[in-house]
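Self-study notes.
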Amino acid sequence: MRSFTTWGLLIFLLTCFNFSCTQNKEKNIDLNKYFSKYRVQGTFLLYDQNKDQYFVYNKERAKTRLCPASSFKIFGTLAILDSEVIKNEKTVLKWDGTKHFIESFNQDLNLEQAYKYSAEWVYQKLIKEIGHSKMQNYLTESHYGNETIGEKVNAFWLDQSFKVSAYEQVEFLKKLDSNDLPFHQSSIDKTKTIMIHEHSDKYILRGKTGTTDKGVEQMSWFIGYLEQNSNKYFFATNVYSPSEKEFFKSKAVQARIPITKEILKTEFNLL
């Protein structure tokens, strides 16, 4: 009886210790004022590498898988470079003359430019050339999102087939930074360079936006990571606005980057 009681107590203490450690690695923070300032709702998730700690606002939404839209172009860039469907990121693709509503799309572009402008036609053309089977292998081996392509290999990140949560976005970025993805090192290195959104003598900010007006909800992402103070901070911001009927064309869609930067500056003393 004593032996059982001792073992039972030990298991109980170990369970409590593990639960405590898990809880200490994640902190809920109230960031509503940053979202309400721009009349949007959403979620923000940050992982502080040195502290090995997550900070989350609106955890339920952070766990919800959503359409990645153009935030998928980070993964898409890795796949395009790794599969060698183009020679390199400087290879120019000829515009076929089809008019797109974003003017910067209507020109010849290389992969670096296509990432910067978020030119969908470039990624759709090249990922179609990679093919369904190879893209599926990349997704499966990377354990990214729901790992689902669906029927259209050139649109699965846009048509609600592939979905990913904020937590999964951050985990993917952590793997990218630590070179723990099924891509050649040269592809990873080039992608990290293409991802640079801002840089100064104090920090490097990498990231990608993405917006969708398809499906039941119009919303927008800004995901990436910041290198500063000998540390790395991986983040995923997602915003939506139930009151905006034309979200994609509204000021609400632009809230993703300023919200992220204001949080990083005010809450974490960064940038």
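Second protein, same conventions, sequence then structure:
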Amino acid sequence: MTPYLQRRALYAPLIDNRPSLNLGLVVVIPAHREDRLLSCLLHLEKCRLPACDVEVIVVLNDAWSDPPAVKEAHRRSQQQVQEWASGRRTTRLKFFAVHAADLPDKYAGVGLARKIGMDEACFRLERVGNPQGVIACYDADSRCAANYLTSLDRHFANYPRDHACSVYFEHPLLGADYPEEVYAAIAQYELHLRYYLDAQRFAGFPHAFQTIGSSMAVRCRSYQEQGGMNRRKAGEDFYFLHKFIQLGHFRELNDTKVVPSPRPSDRVPFGTGKAVRALLKGKKSLLTYHPQAVLDLKAFLDRMPDCYPLKTPEESDLLAALPEVMREFLVAADWQKHLAEARGHSADFDGFQKRFFRWFNAFQIMKFFHFARERAYPDLPVVDAARWLAGHWPEETPLLPVAAKAEDWLRWFREIDRRGWQPPAISAGLGGSAGRE
């Protein structure tokens, strides 16, 4: 047993069945009050199988304070999954369900459920001597392309040094499962997600990747080396993946697709479910970060090389050249202290820029956008922001008419994102297009 599993796993192994010696991929699914769980598993069962064997672990989870009816429903779901799984013909794809019952109210939630399942996946992979095996995170209301399992296996085989990856996703934009208003709402929310990410890329941030809990995967060994999954009730995916993004050897997997649910929800304080629910309650348009905040961020990242001692020894000269809102944010963030630490522990520019972006990371960028919103740049409709960014995007992709809707711009940004993106060569400069008409 590894040091991580000895010290950090909350439970001893929960699954008695001996894993296949060819086990190489484990899909972990947290489930809480899910009435379509078997539909999710049936969808995974239809996927093409990779060269390695695959396990799917469902973690039915409830809190100590949950009503007895919820806990009883989870016990029935566990039994239902086990009975269904026992009738499967193939031995190369196996399904298991564990019931993590009466979890402490302080921690019960999606982060803890993912941790329980991912720790169990580590037990399984380590037991067969495969610490390089892959653990994929999925959701009980998601669907996926038929090549989901094979693409995950091939991706990590093609990039043996990679620690983790973000898997391409698309919410459904039509169908019979939800009212039309739900699909209209999710189009705006996904457009916000893609605008926010691509705005960071346009500004020159090298660690801009989607962090969607149902669309990510990590190696067993890397998962343990970085301390496993956190126990956050929401945002667990953001904090988890950025540990690996900052390490390097992280990239997107774009030749498959996860289809997360667009359903409204009150289970978490932010995220997809809450955003859709808010739009359904009467908001006509989703608001997002102002383009001027993006330009201020870009102005700073364009000058990042000047923060190194060999370029500009005086921070005051650099600060004076930046937009006012960015200046105020940096002073409030005590940037001189962080620059001094990065310089003092770096032998060259490459080392400096790595340390710089450990401080000025995705969380700092989010804090800056919130600061800019309150200080000077109020949010604006996501369609207007997307139209602006598309007009400044370096690629020569035909622009849409001014009257284009959120769904149209979403498809535009999906096409851009699916082509893939590599972080810019920071030392060569972080400039971008001045804009397109």
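Instructor comment on the second fold: The radius of gyration is 23 Å.
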